[in-house]
């Protein structure tokens, strides 16, 4: 059985209610020294997994970045690809994203067809994920590059129905993303509406740059918070988010 971040032990027992902390590492934004600093902080402060990728990778350094992580950390590496060009067998897994908030067939199924034989031949753990971009005030690289319209910020019902449809189609994870460096995160109302609509784990990211925003996302129903930009700018933020995530998990242990 391949490794699954959401199953905590060899018996493959899920941990209901547990919250997870993921750090997004964008190959374009990191040099070796800054990456090593984030890696050592991540080991200290219980990061659950790294996402590696970006909406527009312009450097050739994704492979070198994954190698650097693998050489210096035991934390799993999950690919967060923007196209089938960004597969890498050194990683542990891949968020196989279907961009269900959009209507561009290329990102709903096209890239997946190209990637399928490569993924089948690899050892990568596949996480089939319904990916929903949310309009958080300005156009993001992800919506521009994918040629899709994000879900309006103040329409939680659209996000909930989109997630429901994704779950009914068999997608096993949902990702609500305000876009990297978003001016504001996805609203608590939208997170709660999606949480209520589906059973599958819910990943939330984009624009989370204070401990309070991380706490709000988790309290609204996110199972995983993803932080990229603000940790790149201010690595000490990693410890602050870790404390927030731990506070939810400690409360869970107390109530068991
Ligand atoms: C973007 O959800 C991720 O796809 C993380 O966003 O870089 O704004 O933290 P930030």
Structural summary, described in words:
The chain is 40% helix and 16% strand. By secondary structure, the protein is α/β, with parallel strands linked by helices. Strands 1-2-3-4-5-6-7-8 form an eight-stranded parallel beta barrel, surrounded by six helices. Helix 2 links the parallel strand 2 and strand 3 (77-79). The model is unreliable at 8-12 (pLDDT under 50). The chain binds SN-glycerol-1-phosphate. SN-glycerol-1-phosphate (1GP) is lined by residues 24, 177, 180-182, 205-208, 226-230.
Q: Write down the domain tally.
A: 1
Major beta sheet, strand line-up: 1-2-3-4-5-6-7-8
Count of individual beta strands: 8
Characterize the largest beta sheet: strand count, sense, and whether it forms a barrel.
8 strands, parallel, barrel
Query: Which architecture does the CATH hierarchy give at level 2?
Result: Alpha-Beta Barrel
Quickly give the structural class. alpha/beta
**Beta-strand content estimate:** 15-25%
Q: Provide the CATH superfamily.
A: FMN-linked oxidoreductases
- Overall form: globular
Please state the average pLDDT score: 92
List the helices and strands and how they pair.
Elements lengths: L19 E6 L6 H13 L4 E4 L9 H11 L4 E3 L13 E7 L5 H17 L3 E9 L7 H6 L9 H13 L4 E5 L10 H10 L4 E4 L5 H10 L3 E4 L1 H5 L3 H18 L2
Parallel strand pairs: 1-2, 1-8, 2-3, 3-4, 4-5, 5-6, 6-7, 7-8
Helix pairs in contact: 1-2, 5-6, 6-7, 7-9
The structure holds SN-glycerol-1-phosphate (1GP).
